[in-house]
Structures are given as structure tokens and as C-alpha cells.
């Protein structure tokens, strides 16, 4: 045990060579701006400022004073000159300890880093540490994240983004000692390379479509009627709470049909559940799903639902995004009459209720079903293009919505925008990087094979655009006749994407066609290298429609659900152990001095051995491949000693909306601790003040497309009752005979009936007199029944 601990430990930083030239501003410069040698004026925005080389020094005779006397937006900073002669050289995969001495009259100051990429040039990297007001010289120190590949130099300084002044002196930058060698694998060689799945002996007791990791580490699984019309007619609506500590499930009384509702974690840890299913489609296909306007909160402490006020209208399949002030905004879905909902709804955290429509900005736009709306660092929303059902999205398929200006601006580059049904979009680690990955997807109207497309957008760019990422790795697919390797452009929809504490993204599960043909494949996406690590262990349980995968506080991933078109449901529960849990002993967080964190805080923890990084991960609230609130927030370290670390908390609530988070400490080998729960936010007034004073950068500030103004007020948009891609002439409302069969299925009775048989549809009643798919030629009321497939009189076999 001792040898394992020593092997996994990272040596502490040792005092070394100061890599900064002219660290105390003592050498004057030669430029007209009067800045000292190797220092430059930097900043942006509408503000009045001065840069002064002052004699009020901590040591020597000179220091640098930056002062803002008026500010509307932006910042000013004295920055190490971005040149080969001045900017310190760094090595990829290494870390550096930064320190300086400062005096400040404003709380709005932070250490800001820029990095030079050998290909892309100089670019903003990250903010590391907020500096409290200090009347006397005070030392600030912080450790950089691991230097990304391709970075050869960095530059840094103190950004001042509020009225007041900051005087700095005696800058130091030292390289941290290299990490120890990789630890010894504690599993089999294959497990240590690919991880391992376990199918639990206990079954999920409900047909859950929604999965929420609660602030106590338990998991809320919401089914409602579970896509079962019989349960709907009986008024049997269910939820369950799973406790990973003892492997038990507890069923929870559920007041309404929360099947295909929206949900989000509120800042106090309760779960807001909005809308759901008021009614299933009619047997004749003339009426589609109908949305509820009911709304409830689930309290993890009491494990009970409590009604809130109603939403303005029904929203079956709504979005749900928490904002920097704790409010929740929701778009899209279907109304009570099955039409498309064009109204935005806003839940006020302060008032604990949905606001009346006259208090919510409206564009009267139809965003579709489960539109993926991701909060950006400046409070705007990025619609990634991921959605469920329906296609033909307007414009480029992705856009930025500015709530305050009430405008929508398209962003380019999303490939095959109308084949993004049941794709997944995630804000990549860390949230400070503001990059979004969109994975796979399909089209339930044309039913082609799901695609392998992955697209990445960097929202830090002035005019961001999606660029092509690496193709999704391929695995095995089962189309009802046994597993075979995927070929060509075959990818998957219904994919799950899970942010992991080592900074990678696990993608798992999925299917080749709408509600059919599970794909057994899993991979890691590495945001640092923009590459996939293919060939991981695959979940042995099919995970297509109505499946979820999510991170547990112990660092494992849990997967539930599978509801294919034949109406069945898989109650097996799988748990994935990533390779990082098979690399030896885990670091431990031995104490969290304060579990209630405010924005801009420095919070001290103790650990049992050195760590390389720490982060907050927002617990999952996932359904239909969608969790727009999932995020990984980096916590820059100020290392006191091997066992004591100060964590520097972002001052921007838009990067980490208020609420409960899992705090992970991770060593140099990527091995995470078990998470500790911490609450970020503080009083509502404090959170609001933090949002106003946060260091918000000028990202996505020069969009090429013209902003779209609000449309004329309207009640709704027409939506086809067949938007779910199911032909209701056959079977019950819980069964989905595809409106369009996969392209590989010939348009003959035999081919279609064979496909239905391969996918275990069983006997299907024909609803009414119409038979649009020609599945009941003998018109006995049973699709693909006896006598429906003609036989060859010579051979006695079915005709093709």
C-alpha cells in the first residue's frame, strides 16, 4: 500500500529559476507607451484607465499600477509582452507555479493567462485566481493547469475589471517538478486499457426516461407512465431513487405523468421537473402527444414531489437551462393541443415560481423538442443543434440567443444539421475553454443510418463556427440477426456523453436507426488533443431510445434504460469502471474546510498526497441524450504543501451556475478521489452581485450573421402528429412502427414484415381501416399476420 501511494504521488514544487524577465519592472522599456521592458499594455472594452510605473514598490524602486476610473465593460492589464524575447518558454504536459505581490482597492481583479500555440499563435487561455482587496502588499500564488500540446510560451498578468486600482510587483514563475512514473495496473491488462462494465444483480424497478444525480449521491429515476399507455390509462406514474451506497431502489409516489418532461437542478439542490405527458397520440394518428403545463420540485431530503405554479402552457419535451442567477429558462416542446410551443418560460429562483408571460422576453421562435441550450460565459445561450425528433431546423442549425437583447444569431459549420436527432452536445472540460462538442445523430423522418459526425465549436472566437472533429469510432451493431462490425459511415444516435473527472468525455451506447439496432461501442474523447481513444469496453446491455448514462460521485458511470420501437423496456443496470480507477490507490480529500462556497473564493482542502488538479462537476440531469447543464469547472490550485491546497473558485456564475457540485481531486496520473459535495453560490444577492462583477471576456462578440429580431406574436406552430416517427396505424401508442423503414429494407410486405419480426414486434393490431405501409394485405386487422405475406405456389415459400 505504501509503495502504491509513493508511486502515484506527484513531487511538490521546488523553488527554481524565475522564468520571468524584468519581474520587478526595474528595467525601463524603449517604447513610446512608457511601459517597462518586456511588459505591455493590454485590455479591451469601454473604460477609462491609466498605467503608471510607480515608486510604491514592494522591493526595488518600481512597481506597476493599473487603475480604472470608469467602466462599462472589458478590462485592462499589464501583461508580459507576447514575444519570443519576453514570454517564458514552457513545455507541454508540465505545470508552473505563478506568484506576485499586490495591493488593490477593487475586488474585481484576476490573474489571467495567455498561451502561444505553435500553429494558431497567441490566444487567451484562462483566468486562474481572483484577487481580494488588499491595503498592504499581499502575496498571491497559483499553479497553472497542465500546458496543452503545441504550446511553447505563456504570458500572464493581472486583469482589472472594476473601478479601482491594482499595484503589482515581484512576479515569479517556476516550473513544477515532473510527475512520477505511471502506477502499476491493479486489474487485468485489458481492464486497465479499456475499463470494465458490470451488470448489477438488481433491476431498475421503473421504466425510467430521466436520470438525475442528487446532491446526496443518490439517483432519481423518473418514469411517469414509462411510455406505456396502459399505465397512463391506469394513472400509474412512477419514479425511483437508487442508492449506490447499498444498491437499493426505493419507489417514489409520482403525481402526474412526467414521461418526457424537462428537469434541472435548482441552486438549493431540489430538482425542478416541468411538463410531461397529458395524452398519448390517437390510434388514427390525427392527434399527437400533448404536453402538460404542470410543474413540481423534488426534494432529495424528503424524497417527495411538491407542486409549483403551472407553466403558461404545455411543453412536452422542453429544454431546461439554469442561468447564472439561479433562474431557469425553458423553450420548445409540444402544447396541450400537440402544436409546437413558441413561448419561452422562466422560473424565478428568488420567487420560486414560473413568471407570467409579460415578464419573460419572447422571440416567438419554435426551438423544437429538447433543444440543447447551453449557458455561455457571458449569459447568452448557445443552441448547439442537438434536438429530439423533427428536422428542417431553420438557418444553419445552430445559433446564439441573447436574452437581454432578445435576438438570435446563426453560427455556421454544423454538418448535416437535419441529421442531428438524438445527437449529444457537451460543453467540453474545462467550462472556461467554452468549447462545445456535438456527437452523432440521425433523422427519424427519413431514417438513414445514424452518422459518425462530430463537430466542435470554440465560443471564444470572435466569430465562432463549428469545425469538423474526428469521426466517431465504430463498434458492433445488432440489427436483429446478431452482432456485426459497423462499416462505411455507420455511426449512432441516442448516444450518451459523460464528463469524467480526468477531463475526458466518455461516449457510450446508441443505435444505428431510430429506436432500433443497438451499437455496442464506447470511447473517450480527449479535449486536449481533440482525438478519440477507441476500443473501450462496451456496455453489454443495449442502450438506445430512453437510455441514460451519468457520472456517480465515486467516479464510475451508471447506465440505465432502453426502450426500442417494439415497446419493450430493458430494466438492467450497468456500471462502468474507467481505467483511471484501476491504476492504483486513489487520492483522498481528507477535509474540506468550508462546504459552502461563494464566487471568487479561495477554498482550502487537505489531501492525503499531492494532487495535480481539482474541479467541480455539476451532477447529471439527463434525458434523450441531452443534459445542457452538464459542466466541468476547473479550480486552479495554490499549493501550500503536499497535503494542503487552496482552490481558486471562478468569480463568474455563468461558468458555474449556483448549486451543488461534486468536487474531485485528481493526481498526476489522472486518478480521481471520491467526490465531496460542495455548494456554490451564497445568498441570492451575493450571487447577483457576482454575476454583475464577473470577469466576462469578449467571446463571440463579432458574429458575422445579422441578428434576427423577434417574430410576430403567435400562439404556436403546426407540428405533424407523426413527429415521433411512428405510424400509429399499427399497435399501441407505446409501440413505434417506423413511418419510414431503414433504407436497407425493401418496400415489400415481406421485407417489412421480416424487419418487424427481427426486431421482436410480435402481433400488431391495425388501427382503423387504413394500411399505409401495406402490412395487412388480407385485411384481417393484424399486421404481418398469417396470409399477409404471399407464398409461391410452386415452392410453398414466402414470395420476396
UniProtKB/TrEMBL annotation:
UniProt cross-references to InterPro entries, sorted A to Z: Gal_Oxase/kelch_b-propeller, Gal_Oxidase_central_sf, Glyoxal_oxidase_N, GO-like_E_set, Ig-like_fold, Ig_E-set
Keywords annotated in UniProt: Signal
Keyword Signal: yes
Domain Glyoxal oxidase N-terminal residue range list: 238-574
Domain of life: Bacteria
Biased composition (Basic and acidic residues): 766-779
Region (Disordered): 766-800
Keyword Transmembrane annotated: no
Galactose oxidase-like Early set domain: residues covered: 586-679
UniProt protein name: Galactose oxidase early set domain-containing protein
